[in-house]
Amino acid sequence: MAYWLFKSEAEVWSWDQQVAKGETGEEWDGVRNYQARNNMRSMKLGERGFFYHSRKETEIVGIVEVCAEAHPDSKANDPRWECVDIKAVRPFKTPVTLAMCKEDARLKDMVLVNNSRLSVQPVTDEEWKIVCELGETDPS
DNA sequence: GCCAACGTTGGC
DNA sequence: GCCAACGTTGGC
């Protein structure tokens, strides 16, 4: 069971919009980066990920679940680009900011801390637990 | 709003 | 196949 992190600018696609999609979820479209796409190709149904607001808030605001495995991005005119569908699981009680992650020595190797430009990232089991703890949120 | 870091493109 | 030029992302 792998864990992930999805980044989005709140102005483009926010946590609230994700929640509004309910159980149906929504395509995580628009990824035009091979590394990020390859991460999505590795995702299995039911795997969990963090939902992160980039640029303005720079914080992890909720937990999502993969509800459809990788398929062609319906908004791309190019078959190279694929995406998964995700649905909101629960919001963080306390959002975990990037600054909090940077301050925590246990998270020094987290991709979020080291490679700010990758929009779909893997998260380790350990990092998952620590971030949930910082956010006072049920990790299950 | 600025700019560093990164990814991609395309000429050679 | 190299690398300069360009475009984009995202933290600050």
From TrEMBL:
Residues 2-134 form the EVE domain. InterPro entries: 5hmC_binding, EVE_domain, PUA-like_sf, THYN1-like_EVE. Pfam families: EVE (PF01878). It comes from the Bacteria. This is Predicted RNA-binding protein, contains PUA-like domain. It comes from Celeribacter neptunius.
